Amino acid sequence: MKIAFVGFGNVARAFARIIDERRTELAHRFDLTLSTVAIATANHGSVRSTDSIDLINAVACVEQGGNLTRLPQTIPIADTQSLLEGCDADLIFETTPLNIEGGQPAVTHIRTALRRGIHVVTANKGPIAFAYEELRSLAQEHEVEFRFEGTVMDGAPVFNLVESCLPGARVLGFSGVLNSTTNLILTEMESGHSFEESLKEAQRLGIAETNAEHDIDGWDAAVKAVALANVLMNANAHPADVAREGIAGITVENLKSASESGSTLRLIARARLSERGIRLSVAPEKMSVTSLFGSARGTSNVLMLETDLMGELAIVENNPGVEQTAYALLSDLLNIHRSFSRSKK
Ligand SMILES: NC(=O)c1ccc[n+]([C@@H]2O[C@H](COP(=O)([O-])OP(=O)(O)OC[C@H]3O[C@@H](n4cnc5c(N)ncnc54)[C@H](OP(=O)(O)O)[C@@H]3O)[C@@H](O)[C@H]2O)c1
Q: Distance, CA 249 to ligand 1 centroid (Å)?
């Protein structure tokens, strides 16, 4: 399978390391050999190759602040759109940053690839929140797959769980701790660390959004809530529909006083069916430290699905890092490979 990367940041590089380390297993166990034909970035060059690009060299180049055009046997490409229009990949990994004002340019990247009959895997939740219906229809029309497991709760199976394991059940609502950066900040602040120190720790771990204000202000959680509602509840919602409050106003004192009554604060995303449709919200809430949400510490995420036939079902992801999002790209890749290998037989 010929693959290409649009975005080669923390997530894509962690994924590149996994597929390089697992090359032999992918070939033997899944009959899958990968060749990287193009990589696009914003500030580290964009290249295609007539041969396969050595991913470990590409990772080292970007991590040393270099430019991908210096890699051997690569041809520089002027911009991402030209790369997408000209590259002969079977599958593109789109991992550019979240844009909370419309999801661009990722929506255009994905649209271009799908129209050209290229499968797309993304970890970018913007396109699912802003253009899910359109992109899903485009994928169907062009008989390719569009997968996005990493957009909510990293590699924990959320969309795959409902799609593959809950056939016939309806999702009526959900609630959850969906943003790792704010959860880490709140947990660190519980131990007396300052807001700034805690944010720095999230950035060091590579889990903060490119623009960390999107985490702090609740935008990331809001966009995830919309992605979940659009895919699992056919909500056709928009991030602006979410009643949103972030964690910027929370102080170490607030957390200390909550802990005196055995509670803590968590940023909770909710979707509820009401008479006027689906109501979406993101806000800090006081939770008992022994509750499911209150006990989620560090980068942990929790999602509680409310379904008609299966009642309440919770998924807990314990202290994920960037590797778990990279795993989402791997699981999407293998699912696409599996379904297309079957359809060829
Ligand atoms: N990090 C996580 O734990 C995590 C978890 C779940 C989901 N996600 C999502 O995954 C995506 C990637 O996250 P990340 O942490 O890898 O971000 P990141 O480290 O900031 O990397 C973003 C990459 O996109 C590139 N880029 C920006 N604009 C581009 C454009 N127009 N064309 C081509 N490349 C472009 C950047 O290039 P330069 O470096 O050259 O500027 C960089 O390589 C985001 O949408 C994020 O919300 C991340």
A: 27
